[in-house]
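ENTRY TYPE: paired fold submission
RECORD: A
CONTENT: sequence, then structure tokens
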Amino acid sequence: MSTTPLPATLPRLPAHDARFADSLAPEARIRELDLGPGLWAVERTGPDTQVLYVHNPTNELQAFYPATVFGGDVTPVFLSGDITTAGEEGAGLIVRLAPKGDVWLARTATTDEETP
């Protein structure tokens, strides 16, 4: 049995955020990422932004480092999901996903300026 969600079952962001429109446009680059065993991830990339969806289809807590996708000096913008975090901003940030949980994170060219 595959743990990869079908494209039709990928949850939508709860609200449209114009800052990330280029990543969510039909012409955005879409690729599946390997963030480690037990996680399924998709990255959408536009000219100026990245949006990351990560799903934990397992029955165990799973964790990943957003820095592996966004770079070590970026603290991603939380868009939606149910997570706990540990570590520090940037490369030290660890995101923990509960069993069957998911999260949407994003980055813009000015992410650091937009996050308080």
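RECORD: B
CONTENT: sequence, then structure tokens
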Amino acid sequence: MPEKPVTSYIVSVFEKPTWRTVLTTKDKAEALAMAKEIGDKVRVEEITPKLKKR
């Protein structure tokens, strides 16, 4: 039985000239709270890996 892929959330902040990762978590609420705390120039990305076919 294949395992269900787990979604990860990445909080990044823009520091000229690149984006820097601040937090990586599996909890969406925690990621959004961190982004709100940081303020401007923040993005939250959602990543869900694809299952490998055998």
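NOTES ON RECORD B: Helices lie at 28-38. The beta strands are 8-15, 18-25, 42-47.
STATUS: closed
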